[in-house]
TrEMBL record:
This is Heavy metal translocating P-type ATPase. It comes from Arthrobacter koreensis. It is found in: Cell membrane. The chain holds residues 397 to 693 of 743 of the full protein. Signal peptide: none annotated. Belongs to the cation transport ATPase (P-type) (TC 3.A.3) family. Type IB subfamily.
Length: 297
């Protein structure tokens, strides 16, 4: 369904860029006591930039720029913030090549054929599940990159790890204050991410989420399970996210909140969309609809 500006009744919802799907949504905001926050694109800007490319033995004769160009050509077909960042960085060099047989695995990575070479780029664990493990030297390199707070993507050429692309993200302005406001509203904020634990812990620390409330390395199916687990423990759960990989969890949550900057899949699955995509608006949406509900009752 297309979101309708129900809160336009007060004029305030529309003014604040908050779109709500139906009246029952207001009921749900009243009782939520836990809010799961997707990291990339929700708490952080999701506007990643490539910090550096490190070569692994599988690179063969490719240098850093060559590997980045191949990866960028592949990722150019993707829509994940990681894909956009890698394609943008590669596009600054020589032009990108066409990709065939492109396949995207949400929460994992992408694969395809560029210039006759099979390329896979994604989360290290996902490559391993697909028969492309890192040897111990490569795993050491990976850990070093992650310890800088980077989201590290492994790139394999013709089935062999060829390099690691490190990306840096920034926390959105106002995320820290928004987490504090959510707490004041009586909600327990939990960080939920498919990214690695080192990066997740650093982001949690910066925005004021407790270390025990960080769930990292979570697959898209795992995000739904996390929502369900909190619900089984008696919580009424809100979930805020932006990605294709968040859609199922947004649908499972008692209150699904999508970022307006995010994917159509997230917005379609959510009860509520914040057009400005700030976490502050998420707090405002909960505040405002609780207030509106009081007025209606
Ligand atoms: P988040 O929960 O933080 O939004 P995702 O679940 O979307 O993260 O992605 C989890 C991990 O999967 C990323 O950190 C990355 O390692 C990998 N990944 C996802 N999409 C891509 C892609 N297009 N290219 C490379 N790696 C990807
Ligand atoms: Mg996201």
């Amino acid at each position: 369904a297309t979101p309708v500006g129900l809160l336009t009744g007060t004029g305030r919802g529309a003014q604040l860029g908050i779109l709500i799907k139906g009246p029952q949504v207001l009921e749900d905001t009243r009782t939520v006591d836990t809010i799961l926050l997707d990291k990339t694109g929700t708490v952080t800007s999701g506007k990643l930039s490539v910090a550096r490319t490190v070569l692994l033995p599988g690179a063969g004769s490719e240098d850093e720029d060559g590997l980045l160009r191949l990866a960028g050509s592949l990722e150019n077909a993707g829509e994940h913030p990681i894909a956009r960042a890698i394609a943008a960085a590669a596009g600054q060099g020589p032009g990108l090549a066409p990709v065939s047989g492109f396949l995207s695995s949400p929460g994992g990575g992408v694969r395809g054929v560029v210039e006759g070479r099979s390329i896979v780029a994604g989360r290290p664990g996902w490559l391993e599940e697909n028969g492309i493990p890192l040897d111990s030297a490569a795993a050491d390199t990976l850990r070093r990159e992650q310890e800088t707070g980077a989201t590290a993507v492994v790139v394999a050429l013709d089935g062999t790890p060829a390099g690691i692309i490190s990306l840096q993200d920034t926390i959105k302005d106002g995320s820290r204050q928004a987490v504090a406001r959510l707490r004041e509203l009586g909600l327990r904020p939990v960080l939920l991410t498919g990214d690695n634990a080192v990066v997740a812990a650093a982001v949690a620390r910066e925005v004021g989420i407790a270390p025990e409330d960080v769930l990292a390395d979570v697959r898209p199916e795992g995000k739904v399970d996390a929502v369900r687990r909190f619900q089984e423990q008696g919580a009424t759960v809100a979930m805020a996210g932006d990605g294709v990989n968040d859609a199922a969890a947004l649908a499972q949550a008692d209150l699904g909140i999508a970022m307006g900057s995010g994917t159509d899949a997230a917005m379609a699955a959510a009860d509520l969309t914040v057009m400005g995509s700030s976490l502050g608006q998420v707090a405002t949406a909960i505040e405002l609809s609780r207030r509106t509900l009081r007025t209606i009752k």
